């Protein structure tokens, strides 16, 4: 796929943005909510990267499904961060836009699955 590097850059941007955002959280929340957000962003990045680069169609579907589930989990964590006022709406909107784009790309790649 010609856009593999683009998705890899987008998920890296997500991981970087989440790390930067959660560094601003109060200390206790950096260790709790922040750690969950960072871990979930890493799951999105690693699973989507494996899903895009594997030659095994079954593995692709499994890893991309895991990435999609992690996106939903991340969205819930973002809602919690917003409710607790640990981030500004504009900060969360920026990260939310990245997650939404990654979700669309994951769905697009999953639709290209054609078993032999």
- So what's the CATH class? Mainly Alpha
The main pleated sheet reads as: none
What number is the mean pLDDT? 90
Could you say which structural class the secondary elements and strand pairing correspond to?
A: mainly alpha
* Terminal residue distance: 18 Å
User: Could you state the order of secondary-structure elements as H and E?
Assistant: HHHH
Based on the structure, what is the oligomeric state of the protein chains?
A: single chain
How much of the polypeptide forms β-strand, as a percent range? under 5%
Fraction of helical residues = over 70%
Gyration radius over CA: 15 Å
Q: Report the principal-axis shape.
A: elongated
Unreliable runs: none
Number of domains: 1
Please identify, by name, the CATH architecture.
Answer: Up-down Bundle
CATH superfamily: 23S rRNA-intervening sequence
Report the CATH topology name. Answer: de novo design (two linked rop proteins)
Number of DSSP helical runs: 4
Number of strands: 0
Task: Summarize the model shown.
This protein is 83% helix and 0% strand. It is mainly α and 116 residues long.
Note down, in words, how this protein is organized.
This protein is 83% helix and 0% strand. It has four helices and no strands. The protein has helices at 4-22, 27-53, 57-83, 89-111. The protein is elongated. It starts with a helix and ends in a 5-residue tail after the last helix.
């Amino acid at each position: 796929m010609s856009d593999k590097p683009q998705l890899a850059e987008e998920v890296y941007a997500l991981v970087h943005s989440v790390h930067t955002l959660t560094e601003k959280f109060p200390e206790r929340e950096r260790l709790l909510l922040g750690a969950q957000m960072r871990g979930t962003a890493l799951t999105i990045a690693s699973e989507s990267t494996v899903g895009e680069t594997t030659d095994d169609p079954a593995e692709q579907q499994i890893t991309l499904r895991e990435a999609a589930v992690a996106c939903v989990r991340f969205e819930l964590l973002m809602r919690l961060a917003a409710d607790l006022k640990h981030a500004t709406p504009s900060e969360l909107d920026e990260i939310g836009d990245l997650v939404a784009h990654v979700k669309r790309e994951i769905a697009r790649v999953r639709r290209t699955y054609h078993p032999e």
